[in-house]
């Protein structure tokens, strides 16, 4: 027979174990965005390979243009990533797109792939007068204003002295409820840095079944819209 102290001791051990599991869960949540493992790491590797492949597809002729962006620029979901929207821009267009990335450092869980982190390498070899188009914001939907602001400031520090156009997030159906906040913040930050901002909230586009990424026709429409507003 169990003594009178057995039940309280078992309860104490149970509470301790539960607390330990909660603590471990918190650690995993905190570390996951910075150290991808398992299937997520495989996805990051795929995104990196896609980014490198898209960067090798320089299109057009004329004055150099650099596009720094997310999966829309990288062409995720397209049979031909080289047909992603930047191909519609005038000039000799270079693309530095990485799926899942954004302005904030923790928009992606694939490490240092924010726009600011990737900008120095993307600028290598391009003249100082090359136009830089930055496209994104959809992946910043769940990041705080402070995180987005810090990433934006870091990016503009890298791009200081260059001609910059920032293209904000469109109302992709899966995140339409969140993008208005990001759009307003980016517009404010762009004005503060004296760079052009294009709000894409009202641009009608075609989306894939995931309600986040563009169809081929959507890429064409988005690229033509951006091209028409570059001036």
Automatic annotation (TrEMBL):
EC number: 3.1.1.5, 3.1.2.-
Annotated SGNH hydrolase-type esterase domain residues: 67-220
Name of the top EC class for this enzyme: hydrolase
Keywords: Hydrolase
Keyword Hydrolase among record annotations: yes
InterPro entries: SGNH_hydro, SGNH_hydro_sf
Highest taxon, organism lineage: Bacteria
Molecular function in Gene Ontology: phosphatidylcholine lysophospholipase activity
Stored Pfam families: Lipase_GDSL_2
Descriptive protein name: Acyl-CoA thioesterase-1
Organism encoding this protein: Nocardioides marinisabuli
């Amino acid at each position: 027979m169990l003594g009178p102290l057995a039940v309280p001791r078992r309860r104490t051990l149970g509470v301790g174990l539960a607390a330990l599991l909660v603590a471990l869960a918190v650690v995993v949540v905190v570390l996951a965005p910075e150290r991808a493992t398992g299937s997520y790491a495989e996805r990051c590797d795929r995104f990196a390979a896609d980014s490198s492949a898209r960067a090798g597809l320089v299109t057009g002729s004329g004055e150099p243009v650099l596009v720094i962006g997310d999966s829309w620029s990288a062409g995720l979901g397209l049979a031909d990533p080289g047909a992603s929207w930047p191909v519609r821009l005038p000039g000799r267009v270079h693309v530095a797109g990485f799926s899942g990335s954004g302005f904030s450092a923790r928009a992606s869980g694939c490490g240092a792939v924010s726009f600011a982190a990737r900008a120095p390498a993307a600028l290598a070899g391009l003249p100082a007068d090359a136009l830089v188009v930055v496209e994104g914001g959809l992946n910043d939907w769940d990041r705080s204003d402070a995180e987005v602001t810090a990433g934006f400031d870091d990016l503009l520090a890298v791009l200081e002295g260059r001609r910059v156009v920032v293209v904000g997030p469109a109302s992709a159906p899966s995140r339409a409820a969140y993008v208005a906040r990001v759009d307003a913040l980016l517009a404010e930050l762009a004005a503060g840095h004296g760079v052009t901002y294009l709000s894409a909230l009202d641009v009608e586009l075609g989306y894939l079944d995931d309600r986040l990424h563009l169809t081929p026709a959507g890429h064409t429409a988005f690229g033509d819209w951006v091209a028409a507003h570059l001036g």
